[in-house]
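Regression report. Comparing outputs from two consecutive submissions.

Submission 1:
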Amino acid sequence: MKIHFLKIYFALTFLTTYTVFGQSPEKLKLPEPKRLIDKVEAFGGMALNFPNDHGWAEYVFKASDGRTIENANSEMGYFAGIGLVHSMNKRIELKVEFLFEKRLYSTSIDYLDLNGSTTSETERDQRNRYLGISLIPIYFMSDLKRLHFFVGCSYKYLTGSTAYAIYSSAGQPAGGALVNTIDGFEKHVVDALAGGGYLFPVSDEFSGCIRIQGNYGLSYTLNQNNQSLSINSVSLSLAIRYVR
């Protein structure tokens, strides 16, 4: 009885050992080690920004006793950059983006007399250029990785700022000027961001992306007339991505 049990034990041991170690390397696949960077992408596109001056227009109106009306308008800018992606699982990615952005918006300022009639007007196109870095966790709604949502934060450094202003008085053109406005903006800007987007493939390596993103200023953006404020914004962007 004891000898019969030992025969069965050795037979099972041999069969198990052969099953595990007797396979060819092609059949025995070990899990690949996790890489820090799974994908590298290059991207570029256009963004329509809708700025929120965080009460600046209201402050100007009150400070001028209701004789200055300022409005901010959306304008189309552009951006380009490189992203480094770490895949945490099939639906969650952590992305670091290095970005160049040219952000545009315009302002219109009406100056009123005591009777509320417009005496002069200023139309100004503002162009700010930034270099930035963003940390963005992304969640995809399916394994196809199309519809996605994200949150994150960004740091931007202002490299240049200019404004082209057109003046008019009593309804007549009064000239224009290109002004260096970099001293009126903070050099270092930190934002929290959140939004959603949709990826649509063009080929194995190229895809398009449409995205809605909100930026909330965690630091001051504007510093003019001894007043500092944050400029929040919502942007609608369309970009092309190349992924390797």
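Submission 2:
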Amino acid sequence: MANNSSPNYIRITGAGTYAVHNGSGALLKYITVSASGSVNAKVVVYDNTAGSGTVICSIDASTQTGTYFYDAVVRKGITVVVTGASTDINIVWTAST
């Protein structure tokens, strides 16, 4: 699988389920910018077009801030499920070409 496209990113602020990418590609990195005031803030990234299925990563955003590099191949897509109203994260990925 070739991942020759330029990186894409999305900034996510707040709780919810976010369909980030549909189709194959790669999760490059996850960045917790802030989770101030969010007790038990959790971010789960799935290889799927819905908030279920194969988990790529699960991060306690209330205690783990910073940048996490994955370079994980995804087959179905990238969906991010966030709990914690004050969570501010970035997801960086590429689509397969």
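Expected: both submissions complete independently.
Actual: both completed, but the second showed a warning that disappeared on reload.
Relevant detail on submission 2: The beta strands are 8-13, 16-22, 25-34, 42-47, 54-60, 66-74, 77-83, 88-95.
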